[in-house]
Amino acid sequence: MAIFDIKLPNRMAKALRLANGDVCKQQLRILKKLLHKARFTEFGQKYHFDNILMQPDPVKAFQQNVPIYNYSSIYKQWWHRSLENKPDVCWPGKVKYYALSSGTSDAASKYLPITNDLLQGNKLVMIKQLLSLRNYTDINVRSIGRGWLLLSGSTDLQKGIGHYLGDLSGITVKKSPFWFQPFYKPTKEIAREKDWNKKLEEIVDNAGDWDIGFIVGVPAWVQMCMEMVIEKYHLNNIHEIWPNLSYFVHGGVSFEPYKKGFNKLLGKPLTYIETYLASEGFIAYQNRQDACGGMRLVVSDHIFFEFVPFDDRNFTPDGDLVENPEILLAHQVSEGKDYALLISTPAGAWRYLLGDTIRFTDVSRSEIIISGRTKHFLSLVGEHLSVDNMNKAIQLAGEELDLPITEFTVSGEPHGSFFAHRWFVACDQPVDKPVLAAVIDKHLKALNDDYAVERKSALREIFVEVFPEETFLKFLEIRGKMGGQHKFPRVLKGGLLEAWKNF
């Protein structure tokens, strides 16, 4: 059964035929569609969506009338009412699903509304990404029609009052369309398993019965799964049991730090495909092989985007948005600059500060990379160290010293009258810590001018602590963050840093 030959529902097929056109017009169309559908909700009535739609410039009117929200403010003012089973709050009807997510912060779990309209939009983007494999020079059609192993959260969702709670990945699998069922692995029984360790064991036990062409998941958990399969069946590499495995679809964290250890598990190269699927919506996906790490922003589908330049004029030193920040649209951005994302979605998120920062690598193609988090960056003394800087430095240090560094995190701390960075690194090989610290420091100086300047001033020391990878995974386990979309935070601050120190 060739997946390219599947007959899709008419509504979905029509949406997929939309031509790529002017970004400004595409985004205006999406905003109008969102406003029109939500005009009779409580939110739409309060902010006069009908009136906004009648204005000569609906985008400008939307920005003037609707305030910017973060999770705390929109939940406190609006979303808690939907969670109490009230209809038509921020989106028409009742919200039947909520994704539980704490991201990589130390906050309590967030309850993010997941509507059928959002899931429908996400599915369209998933199909577009699948069809974009035609742009790859080494496409393996045979593998596309094989099994797809999704290392997702449990599909056995928690029952609330009129709704269900769970990981977005678990909700997505539970609501997956009929035409995808023949390809999906593991079995429905295994997918329902809530204990992540038991789920992995059951996947490993059944691995010999499956012909896997695609693996989808967070790199750390996929690597662990493959290692367990190789160990159980006494294999030299994963391709001895899954010879048709050709694609790894990943997201959530930079894959570069994992690639060295990942490749040791393979009998032949894989095609790596990056996605940006947040709990709030499908933001971007890699759609061509020569994208230089960039993913295509989904400007023509179901999300309206706004961009806040991530700089000192728009954000406080703690990463909080200032009042009246500069706001740009998709056709006004520049390459090479970091922007915080505001999104409006068909799940009732309106001008919602996602918390991620992105950087455009190709404006003409609307291609981006994830550069970090508004809160998860280090700037103790003005070094402005982004997650992207950290990922690249770890990658280069691992290559230079021939070390498979699978996880890392960083904290800032006082050092006498000055300051220091402390790196916690996962590596199962012997490491000369002072040498690793010096190499990381060297690459960061080359990557970040502000960092280089502050290393001559108030940022006096760089320390490295090395632990087995198991230590990092155990920490996630005791915090209930095993598997699914959970990943280790790249910067430790506040309560999360204290929990790590205590651990």
Automatic annotation (TrEMBL):
<dbReference type="InterPro" id="IPR004993">
    <property type="entry name" value="GH3"/>
</dbReference>
<protein>
    <submittedName>
        <fullName>GH3 auxin-responsive promoter family protein</fullName>
    </submittedName>
</protein>
<dbReference type="Pfam" id="PF23571">
    <property type="entry name" value="GH3_M"/>
</dbReference>
<dbReference type="Pfam" id="PF03321">
    <property type="entry name" value="GH3"/>
</dbReference>
<dbReference type="GO" id="GO:0016881">
    <property type="term" value="F:acid-amino acid ligase activity"/>
</dbReference>
<dbReference type="GO" id="GO:0005737">
    <property type="term" value="C:cytoplasm"/>
</dbReference>
<feature type="domain" description="GH3 C-terminal">
    <location>
        <begin position="389"/>
        <end position="493"/>
    </location>
</feature>
<dbReference type="Pfam" id="PF23572">
    <property type="entry name" value="GH3_C"/>
</dbReference>
<dbReference type="InterPro" id="IPR055378">
    <property type="entry name" value="GH3_C"/>
</dbReference>
<feature type="domain" description="GH3 middle">
    <location>
        <begin position="298"/>
        <end position="363"/>
    </location>
</feature>
<dbReference type="InterPro" id="IPR055377">
    <property type="entry name" value="GH3_M"/>
</dbReference>
